[in-house]
């Protein structure tokens, strides 16, 4: 999970653990590992959110929403000044959604519904439930796996991913990483595919995109972010970022600057 060098600040009061809630959290705020009796949607209307479970880490910018089913232990970390929205999904409604954690793309309709659910009081009986039903209808599509970074169980592979987490911008080859951890390139390549479901190159690209999102949210330029995350030039970074996130780094930063909520 991406880290920052400074100690993580905490606000004066924690986010409410209520069926719905909204609040501004400072850069670096953490929610330690916990679970819920209900399902939970967490949406960063501004800023970015990293959610970690035993199945790996997702980073969700403002065009993604994280979903955690009942009973799954998870932790959150927030990047930039985050406008975070929480919506609980009762157990009897969770069957309409996938039974594992994930992230979903946020359509314009879903964004407005999530904001309405957390911004305004219920003025008519049943209005909240009707809005929540719309949100669930918008989430019935397959979750977006592009920003999911799975974590390994094999000790050799974990040693490699730990090195990459510590320095995502380092351009060591899989052969060089294998020598550092005492495993062959062939073995590690096989483990990336069998344990993580992706190639070494793809896993490192997603890791770098995670860090890129955080740097961009923190105000770094596209060029600075590309260099810090290991790309040889901004064009390569822009192409990779657009393929994974669905928009260019420039548009992502423009949306952050233009957010007035």
TrEMBL record:
PROSITE patterns: HTH_ARAC_FAMILY_2 (PS01124). It holds the Pfam family HTH_18. Residues 1-31 are annotated as: Disordered. GO terms for molecular function: DNA-binding transcription factor activity; sequence-specific DNA binding. Residues 158-255 form the HTH araC/xylS-type domain. InterPro entries: Homeodomain-like_sf (IPR009057), HTH_AraC (IPR018060), RmlC-like_jellyroll (IPR014710), RmlC_Cupin_sf (IPR011051). Keywords: DNA-binding, Repressor, Transcription, Transcription regulation. Residues 8-17 have a biased composition (Pro residues). PANTHER family: HTH-TYPE TRANSCRIPTIONAL REGULATOR NIMR (PTHR11019:SF199). This is HTH-type transcriptional regulator RipA.
């Amino acid at each position: 999970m991406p880290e920052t060098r400074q100690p993580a600040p905490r606000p004066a009061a924690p986010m409410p653990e209520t069926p719905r809630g909204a609040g501004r959290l400072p850069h670096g705020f953490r929610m330690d590992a916990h679970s819920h009796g209900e399902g939970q949607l967490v949406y960063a209307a501004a800023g970015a959110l990293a959610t970690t479970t035993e199945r790996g880490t997702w980073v969700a910018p403002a065009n993604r929403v994280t979903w955690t089913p009942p009973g799954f232990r998870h932790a959150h970390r927030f990047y930039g000044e985050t406008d975070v929205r929480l919506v609980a999904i009762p157990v009897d409604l969770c069957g309409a959604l996938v039974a594992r954690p994930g992230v979903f793309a946020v359509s314009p309709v879903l964004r407005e519904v999530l904001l309405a659910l957390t911004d305004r009081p219920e003025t008519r009986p049943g209005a909240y439930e009707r809005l929540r039903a719309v949100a669930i209808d918008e989430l019935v599509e397959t979750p977006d796996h592009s920003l999911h970074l799975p974590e390994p169980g094999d000790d050799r592979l974990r040693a490699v991913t730990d090195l990459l987490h510590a320095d995502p911008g380092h351009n060591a080859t899989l052969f060089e990483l294998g020598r550092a951890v005492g495993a062959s390139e062939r073995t590690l390549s096989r483990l990336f595919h069998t344990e993580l479901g992706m190639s070494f190159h793809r896993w490192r690209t997603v890791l770098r995109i995670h860090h890129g999102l955080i740097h961009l949210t923190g105000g770094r330029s596209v060029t600075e972010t590309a260099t810090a995350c290991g790309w040889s030039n901004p064009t390569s970074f822009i192409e990779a970022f657009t393929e994974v996130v669905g928009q260019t780094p420039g548009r992502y930063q423009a949306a952050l600057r233009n957010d007035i909520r």
